[in-house]
């Protein structure tokens, strides 16, 4: 595989990682964006704090794994498998660990 092809594959893996991470994050952040019942849970900080961090992590995690695996074993297919596996583990960790803050319901 030529160097240009390796670079293109790395960029595609990073773009795929960012897209998958944001798509996995979006359903959990929906309540904070639309507000839920009577807009009680509206918190738009998920758009300017969490969204960039999720996209950046989704792009950097498989990219760094790709680069380290490519440097260690010099096989592009192994680097791609490692990058996709780490992306899958990262998305699983994101969906099982991250929960947006929700204000408690008002009790009268």
Could you please describe the fold and organization of this structure?
It is a single chain. The chain starts with a helix and ends in an 11-residue tail after the last helix. The radius of gyration is 18 Å and the shape is elongated. The protein contains 3 helices and no strands. With 108 residues, the protein is mainly alpha-helical.
The total strand number stands at: 0
- Low-confidence segments, given as residue ranges, are none
**What is the share of helical residues?**
over 70%
Number of helices: 3
Shape: elongated
Mean pLDDT, to the nearest integer, reads 86
Secondary-structure element sequence?
A: HHH
Distance separating the two termini: 67 Å
Structural class: mainly alpha
Please give the radius of gyration in angstroms: 18 Å
Largest sheet: none
Strand % is under 5%
Short structural summary:
The protein has 108 residues and is an all-alpha fold.
Features:
108 residues, mainly alpha, 3 helices, 77% helix
Layout of SSEs?
Layout: H1 3-34, H2 45-73, H3 76-97
Helix pairs in contact: 1-2, 1-3, 2-3
